[in-house]
Write a structure and sequence with these properties.
The structure holds two protein chains of two kinds. Chain A is an alpha+beta fold. Chain A has three domains: about 80 residues, Rossmann fold (3-Layer(aba) Sandwich); about 60 residues, 2-Layer Sandwich (Dna Ligase, domain 1), CATH 3.30.1490; about 90 residues, D-amino Acid Aminotransferase, Chain A, domain 1. Chain A is globular. The model of chain A has no long low-confidence stretch (mean pLDDT about 95). In chain B, a hairpin with a 2-residue loop joins β4 and β5. The model of chain B has no long low-confidence stretch (mean pLDDT about 95). Chain B has a three-stranded antiparallel β-sheet with strand order 3-4-5, with no helix packed on it. Chain B has a two-stranded antiparallel ribbon with strand order 1-2. Chain B is about 0% helix and about 35% strand. By secondary structure, chain B is mostly beta strands. The chains are: A alpha+beta, B mainly beta.
């Protein structure tokens, strides 16, 4: 089986996947560097499956669409990347499938966004629809801050910063959960703990093992199914009313989660590829 | 060992280097990329872009 490895920069996560792929006698690794690819809409890459590990969302999404257009199976699928890469589409997909999530509002002008924030109440969280690693998230504590942030976004931001995704702030008590879904199984989960309200490990959140209970597995699999399934990391808040799905990531980073969970996540991903091609 | 193109400190390279691999210079903290393998050539890694992430 020839595995096309779609990548740009190769981080520790990608190295772990590459090492795992090279262990398999029945898998041939074909590097597809997104910085060198040229697509002509008709040519099919000489691979049986593409494993997407691009660091750029826009490149990943378009490459997946083009690969699938010529009949190449991709992990994850284009539609999954599209839904996960845009928080508005994620929220809509979670709603379509009845998956609990924090209350959200979407608005297209600073004025209507201010109305949305006031309606949800303070603090609220403003997020760029496309973004990752906890960057450019704003906890809006009062109306003065809301007006200032919205004005800055409208004037200084690129066009997609003028599409306002507002989320009701959920008190996380210093931690949230990231679960890892591979196919039809929730293989592992971590707590991400931080003194800061942003708990991403990319921002200093500490990873520790989180038991995969039946309840956690269920909401993780439901969230993954809402996105279209595949290899996904689900970010979950523990609220008084139960679990709430915050985000779903389609090019999941797992390097900080292998040792603490004891689960060889890259091995599980590579094994999943075999089943997708059959 | 190879030289950091920014601060000229020695940068250790793993036994199985890959083109495109991301490294960090422990001396100056600069993120580096392996640009070529034969011979191993290091350059500054590109800055994070707005759509980078998971």
């Amino acid at each position: 089986m020839r595995v096309g490895f779609l990548h740009s920069l190769i981080r520790k996560d990608e190295k772990l996947l590459i090492a795992e792929l090279r262990k398999r006698g029945d898998m041939e690794l074909v590097f597809l560097d997104d910085r060198r690819l040229v697509f002509d809409l008709a040519a099919r890459p000489p691979v049986d499956v593409v494993l997407e590990r691009s660091i750029n969302h826009s490149r990943a999404m378009h490459a997946l669409r083009l690969f699938e257009g010529v009949g190449t199976v991709c992990v994850n699928a284009y539609e999954v990347a599209r839904r996960c890469g845009d928080k508005i589409l994620t929220a809509a997909s979670l709603r379509d499938h009845g998956v609990p999530q924090p209350e959200v509002r979407i608005a297209f002008t600073p004025e209507s966004a201010l109305d949305a924030i006031e309606e949800l109440g303070y603090p609220a969280v403003l997020k760029p629809a496309v973004g990752s690693w906890g960057r450019l998230l704003s906890r809006v504590n009062d109306r003065d801050a809301a007006e200032t942030i919205l004005e800055h976004k409208a004037i200084l931001g690129s066009y997609h910063h003028s599409i306002f995704f507002v989320q009701k702030y959920v008190e996380k008590r210093g931690r949230d959960i990231r679960s890892f879904v591979v196919g039809d199984e929730c293989v592992a989960a971590i707590y991400r703990t931080s003194d800061h309200w942003i708990t991403n490990t990319a921002r200093g959140g500490r990873a520790s093992d989180c038991p995969v209970t039946a309840e956690l597995a269920e909401i993780s699999l439901r969230a993954a199914e809402a996105m279209g399934g595949g290899v996904l990391a689900v970010d979950i808040f523990e609220s008084d009313g139960g679990f709430l799905v915050n985000e779903v990531n389609y090019t999941m980073e797992f390097r900080n989660s292998i040792d603490v969970t004891g689960v060889n996540i890259p091995e599980r991903i590579v094994s999943y590829l075999r089943g997708v091609v059959r | 060992m190879h030289e950091c193109p920014v601060c000229e400190a020695e940068v250790p390279i793993s036994e199985d280097p890959l083109e495109g691999e991301l490294l960090e210079c422990e001396e100056c903290g600069m993120e580096l990329e392996i640009l070529a393998l034969d011979p191993v050539t290091l350059g500054e890694a590109p800055d994070a872009e707005e759509d980078w992430g998971e």
